[in-house]
Amino acid sequence: MAAATRTAPRAREIFTTLEYGPAPESHACALAWLDTQDRHLGHYVNGKWLKPEHRNSVPCQDPITGENLASCLQAQAEDVAAAVEAARTALENWSTLPGARRAQHLTRLAKMIQKHQRLLWTLESLVTGRAVREVRDRDVPLAQQLLQYHAVQAHTQEEALAGWEPMGVIGLIVPPTFSFLEMMWRICPALAVGCTVVVLVPPASPAPLLLAQLAGELGSFPGILNVISGPTSLGPVLASQPGVQKVAFCGAVEEGRALRRTLAGQGLELSLALGAESLLLLTEAADVDSAVEGVVDATWSDRSQGGLRLLIQESVWDETMTRLQARMGRLRVGRGLDGAVDMGARGAAARDLAQRYVREAQSQGAQVFQAGDVPSDSPFYPPTLISDLPPASPCAQTEVPWPLVVASPFRTAKEALAVANGTPRGGSASVWSERLGQALELGYGLRMGIVWINAHGLRDPAVPTGGCKESGSSWHGGPDGLYEYLQPSGTPARQPSLSENLNYDTFGLAVPSTLPAGPETGPSPAPPYGLFVGGRFQAPGARSSRPIQDSHGNLHGYVAEGGAKDIRGAVEAAHQAAPGWVGQSPGARAALLGALAAALERRESALAARLERHGVELKVAKAEVELSVRRLRAWGARAQAQGHTLQVAELRGPVLRLREPLGVLAIVCPDEWPLLAFVSLLAPALAHGNTVVLVPSGTCPIPALEVCQDVATLLPAGLVNVVTGDRDHLTRCMALHQDVQALWYFGSVQGSQFVEWASAGNLKPVWVNRGLPRAWDQDAEGAGPELGLRAAQTKALWLPMGD
Amino acid sequence: MAAHNLGTELDLSWISKVQVNHPAVLRRAQQVQARRTVKKEWQAAWLLKAVTFIDLTTLSGDDTSSNVQRLCYKAKYPIREDLLKALNMHDKDITTAAVCVYPARVCDAVRALKAAGCNIPVASVATGFPAGQTHLKTRLEEIRLAVEDGASEIDVVINRSLVLTGQWEALYDEIRQFRKACGEAHLKTILATGELGSLTNVYKASMIAMMAGSDFIKTSTGKETVNATFPVAIVMLRAIRDFFWKTGNKIGFKPAGGIRSAKDALAWLSLIKEELGDEWLKPELFRIGASTLLSDIERQVLSLTFKIKALAIWYQMRAQFLARLAAVKQGRTAQAAQETKVCISRDTVETGQKGLTSVREAWENGKKHSGMLEGVIINSYESRQPTVCNTLCQNEKSVSQMASHCSCF
């Protein structure tokens, strides 16, 4: 009975100290599962384990003990090809199924997860080192909710999403430090709408493999979810497989940028979800203690991947710091599989990253405070609070890593907005204020994908989650998540990439000089000459002109030759006009668009004549003008109803799904349909509150300039800017412009490729046609819901209530 | 007991800017219960500690001197002696923190406790408990009489109407008078949080009560529809911490009403530990008002004791068994084989199912037949009953399940 007497004094001792003891969660079942694979994990493709010979393997280690749990095969190009092939085969069947059948399948998968949840959470916590409580109580239930929510969406897909079709095979790339939940957020909508998925997971992440196995063991449709493990560098290989229509990437900002550049011109959609930093805005009207808990939720509870930028109003700075530091002292760090810890460990890479940041911050003059019950002999990193970082220091700009909080003061709400919106990141933020007016002002003003009022880190399958700016503009959850994997019916399949060797340095760099080309045959009165910038026609900066020919090849007239300087001016004018236009109610915007439509109607004969000179039959020309008028009116009406309220389980209070303008939208109009395409692109952009810089049709820019005459009298100055000139050159200027928030390009294949490449700069969302024509006169393509979707960005505003 | 809280001047600026966000506090309340847990010896020790925080309470219309006497006996001997011995805690003098009765029963309680020869304080509710809707004069008189009868702690209820109408000065004055009436007795102020309307009011009332000189603030009477809840507690604990930071005075906290299970008690302990820290985890600063909680704690300690004991035996057995098994496997030396045989022959049990029964017997008989368990294990191994063998050798949980099963007979 030696052991029995040994435990007794322990109880005595604990009675005095009242300390916490170990509360280990058994991970026997995770190990047993690894044993079924002989501690040797491959890939899960087409419902089977794939363990090819002659591959490198990496060890999968317990991040805390360093114990080798299993070895994981690294995929090579052939394995990726095999996975994509499986997904492609499965697609034929899966995408044509009735939605109800897909819903059934997703529900079965949810049930399957429910049955094996213990295995899932112990495996995830064992391998990632995250606190098991978070995985068990939050991630696993949420994974099931995601499947159930999307099963409902699949059920109603035929009615609710008529006119849309699944994209095809989706390649998904997830980052090394991630929860299997990140994968679930993306595969659920993809599978629901009828896409099939190939997931490239970083080496040594068995939880996604287990999920794939669970899905595979449902029997039917084995190839819809394939998981291969390998380095991120396989991303381009995955993208280049024939049949892959879209790549969804989440991970670090720089990796996302590099991938954007690599995949430019390959003809597939790329959606990026980058960075993991979050923001918390604490005003003096806040419940400070609750806000401190918000900080804990945001970084020190193993809920999110990244660090936190904390903005505190100066008047409550001292109070907040005291409370925060006291709270930090109570945090417990330890083995993830312990039921009583707040934070686990995340492996050497995350720890080094945090350490490096802290050291740099210290060298730049910051104060560092660390506290908490942290085992010393370990791979753990303590909760860390950094303050007094000079605003101009490099650390104040770079992304804050886990588990760090960087606190800085602000004086007024206005200043807080300026600071918060001044960062390149646009992921998630929370606002803490008990004053409703102030909270809403800040919530609406923040340029972020998600804003929580008096809460942090809430998630629900029905609420879209995503970001803007450098956080990438991809969405998951809610209706927005579905559209990520849908395309309008009839969209042509991906074209093989053509112009891989485009020289990005020289594309559109120089403008060929133009010389006098003979007498003008243009009409009288002469069309307006100049660039339409800031509400009036201006001479171009280059002081040169470009000839426009009519359909017979005769010189029709000259338009101004715009350049980089003019684009800069136009973008600036558009930025100045933006606050006024955003502030207008949708009704007021609709009225102005209506007025513009009426003006266009009065100008009908002149416009038709212009088009006729360009070689359009008079009857067709008249129809084009008429259709343009209709488009303007239609978008005015559509803009009326945009955002809506979502009701979320387990939350009292609404979540607002707002549709906000992108900002300054640059549009390169196609050469064809010189008037209709111009109006069809302009109208949705304006209706959704954007300000625009347009490059009109290259061959026939005159009608667009004519419309500008009415714009000048009817719309606020700077709202619409039209710059004529060499399209490649102007495209280059706009694509590289850091202050243009989005770009639509309709032109050549090369131009499309360049635009995609250049958008990596500020990661602006781009829409390119890849040289393909578009039927602007058909409502589906010329005025379809796709335009509305692309003309605005979503923001989810959480408003929990209660007293 | 600690010195009295002398209180401070009324300073309304301490409560004027207060903001309590209800949904955020609810979330915190949910989290705090899920994020901490204690097991095995820790749980046993924590539960025994929880016993020492209990204000063992009876507040019913049918209280008589006989049941108060029983209550006092229970307060003195809250946990079975043999259990305390098993945990080696019998010399820790574990009693409840106080007994809590109606004023008319104070004399009975004092007498009973004296007879039992212990100095457990008697707490009395007062001031028109539970509604507080009587005249101030009679309320003050009630306190004085209870103190005269020998109560050393007075649980007063506040006048809720003063909170709901925002008369904070009047509330402060009333509690001041209670304080004075208490004299040497400790003042525990019941805020009746279920009837205060909002969490912000709970915070304000807590602060006023502390400024006026309460030694404890207490959630509820146990007679409202909503009693001690975590969200309310969090707000009150934050007020206590703020008061401590402002004045350096530590004020006690007493949740009461609706705390019935041992699991609840553990959650309350960890809530105090998380929000205020270890220095509040002593009877001078933390009490749990409860009447039925104690019996559940006793039940839990009983089963834990069995579990801990069973595990200890099991660890020992397994070590011995594995050592012997290794010897048998490797050398099959004559001696090891002989020993094994002896073990098997000593074992009368043949099937695995019966083996479990014999495990139970092994506990009951303690050391005497400990060889039997070993025999069962080896026997089941030799006779190729891997399930039984595995259950016994690898799954520590099943043993504790068996243990809890055993503890039920």
Automatic annotation (TrEMBL), chain A:
**GO molecular-function annotation terms?**
oxidoreductase activity, acting on the aldehyde or oxo group of donors, NAD or NADP as acceptor
Q: Read off the InterPro entries from this record.
A: Ald_DH/histidinol_DH (IPR016161), Ald_DH_C (IPR016163), Ald_DH_N (IPR016162), Aldehyde_DH (IPR011408), Aldehyde_DH_dom (IPR015590)
Query: Source organism's superkingdom?
Result: Eukaryota
Which Pfam families does this chain map to? Answer: Aldedh
Limits of the Aldehyde dehydrogenase domain:
49-487, 549-769
Q: How does it assemble?
A: Interacts with SPG21.
Q: What does the sequence similarity comment in the record state about its family? A: Belongs to the aldehyde dehydrogenase family.
PANTHER family, per the entry = ALDEHYDE DEHYDROGENASE-RELATED
- Name of the featured protein: Aldehyde dehydrogenase family 16 member A1
UniProtKB/TrEMBL annotation, chain B:
Q: Which GO terms describe its biological process?
A: carbohydrate catabolic process; deoxyribonucleoside catabolic process; deoxyribonucleotide catabolic process
Its EC number is 4.1.2.4
- The protein's superkingdom reads Eukaryota
The record's listing under SMART domains reads: DeoC (SM01133)
Localization in the cell: Cytoplasmic granule; Nucleus
Q: Which SUPFAM superfamilies match?
A: Aldolase
What's this protein's function? Catalyzes a reversible aldol reaction between acetaldehyde and D-glyceraldehyde 3-phosphate to generate 2-deoxy-D-ribose 5-phosphate. Participates in stress granule (SG) assembly. May allow ATP production from extracellular deoxyinosine in conditions of energy deprivation.
Name this polypeptide is given: Deoxyribose-phosphate aldolase
